[in-house]
Amino acid sequence: MSVQMVLLPVFVLIGLTFFLLLWMVTARTKAVKARETSLRDIALGQPKYPPRVAQIGNCFSNQFEVPLLFYLLIALALPLRRADLFIVLMSWVFVVTRFAHAGIFVTSNNIQQRSLAWFAGALVLLAMWIYFALKLLLLI
User: Fold this and answer.
1) Cβ–Cβ contacts within 10 Å for residue 97, how many?
2) How far is CA 53 from CA 27, 57, 76, in A?
3) Nearest-CA neighbor of 114 among 98, 127, 125, 92?
4) What is the pTM of this model?
5) pLDDT in tens, 68-106
6) Is-contact 58 24, C-beta < 8 A?
7) Domains in the chain, ordered, with CATH?
């Protein structure tokens, strides 16, 4: 697999993260300007944002939990030359589950649907890690 093919899903997921970052900053700035919260109320990271702003911020923060294991896998698989078609296809499936999770998170925030999207992504990532480990340890 080419480096570009392996990294494209990574770049797409990073794009989602930056989109959420910009949305969060905009929402937080608007909340302060509209006096829905004050700088003193949030200066030490207290969760004093309005619910919608907190929802966007929590979705952004979530991009640094399970996806971190995805980034690590790709960072290891590339230089070890273990990033093959399976890894690339599963990367795209993982990215789709992350978009679904984020989409549910910032819209309906239906916990059942969001949990299913999260769990699907976690299972895909687990399969990727098992495949990578077996490939590496068994020299397949």
Assistant:
1) 21
2) 6, 6, 35
3) 98
4) 0.93
5) 999 999 999 999 999 999 999 999 999 999 999 999 999
6) no
7) 3-138 (1.20.120.550)
